[in-house]
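Comment thread on ticket #2218

A.B. wrote:
> Attaching the input chain for the structure job we discussed in standup.
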Amino acid sequence: MEKILRSLVAACLGFGALFAGAAHATTVSPVIVDLQSSGRGVVANISVNNTGASSLPIEIHVTPLTPTATGLQPGKADSDDDLLVTPPSALVPAGTTQTFRVQWIGDPELTASKHYYVSIDQLPVKLPEGQSAVQVVYNFQVLVSVSSPDKKPELAVTAVAPVIVDGKPAVAITVRNNGQAHGYISQHRLKITATDSSGAEIFSKTISGAEFQRTLAYVTKVAPAFSLRGGTREVLRGMIARGLGLR
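C.D. wrote:
> Ran it. Output below, let me know if you need it in another format.
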């Protein structure tokens, strides 16, 4: 029994090393890309750095995203021709960096932002006949948002209400974007105040966009960096009582 346990532990450690090696073998930068529908901003680059010991086969897929009240919902992969990524596949040698060009080739006069996931997918390697092994493959998703250069976001908090979530105090915040381009909450500050029945201020706290984003990240299904598409309404519900000092 002890021998079996030792074998299981060794196997688990082996799997752990395998997963750890895969996780640190590749880096992708940037993971959020903002493009413009015309001008110089129609093009950007995504870099894939292979720090592993073997070549890395990669395939690119582009998935359009549809904004909803709960975030960006993926559509069918490779069903939209407006965003071009080249090359569509590559073999990245060990210790080298491959650059992928992302270019907007759609309507130069967008009336609202468009969003995509550019998936960088590792392909499994074909093994010699009769040989078996566990292969760990992965994919990175880069959020690409496109807006017209003459369109701007207009983010505003339209409602704040105390709520109880799982028996604990929380705050429901409604943020509306009245503009025609996406915006980022992380680029703004949020100030929350509370008053008593006489109107006297009894609580006040200012939260940076980055802090607000971190606080809500685990309970909010919206795009990375909280991208709000122009003309949409997002209800950001999060148990932010701890961040507000309410518990």
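A.B. wrote:
> Thanks. Noting for the ticket: The chain has two domains: 25-147, 155-244.
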